[in-house]
Amino acid sequence: MVDKYGTGQDPYSYEGTDILINKFDIRDATQLQEAERDFSEIAAMDIEFSEPPYDFSYWCSIHQLLFSDIYEWAGEARTIDISKGNTRFCAGRFIERESQKLLGRVAKDNFLNGLSKEELIPKLAEYYSELNVIHPFRDGNGRAQRILFEHIIVNTGHTISYELISKSDWVQANIDGYNGDYRALESIFNKCISD
């Protein structure tokens, strides 16, 4: 059986299903999605802002805090290759290297400090898109990455509120970014980030 990420039989899933193995042995996709959402929303409230460095370990720690109540593998890089629709994500064996490389560029950019909002937005869109292609975890990538970027943005002296954006606009902007067109993400960040 092929799961939603096109991996075939997935070692992270119960045999013959696309349901991720979880600490509650939930075998219904809708129930698992609800449990995952509920647990991660509660956990997200407890994640405190930290100053840089924002590296791969930091990203993993965010994921671990969000999903450790439900998944044993929370905070660990996936070991399989995944894709979604026409989007192929970073091969599992390159995740840590590529994450460190990209987050190293963010560090060399002084974690985007000292930029005007007009300078900040295009860099955020590019970095967000590039890191999104990595998709380092088996699931929960979007939530962990949004919090990582909240911290990067707060560290620059701005705030962000994703509530202003529809899910469909967000997904399409990320697909466009995957294809090298950052304009929709720039527009979203421009709306969501305070001056």
Automatic annotation (TrEMBL):
Keywords: ATP-binding, Nucleotide-binding, Nucleotidyltransferase, Transferase. InterPro entries: Fido, Fido-like_dom_sf. PANTHER family: PROTEIN ADENYLYLTRANSFERASE FIC-RELATED. Pfam families: Fic (PF02661). Residues 54-191 form the Fido domain. This is protein adenylyltransferase. The keyword Zinc does not apply. It comes from the Bacteria. It comes from Neptunomonas japonica JAMM 1380. It catalyses: L-threonyl-[protein] + ATP = 3-O-(5'-adenylyl)-L-threonyl-[protein] + diphosphate; L-tyrosyl-[protein] + ATP = O-(5'-adenylyl)-L-tyrosyl-[protein] + diphosphate.
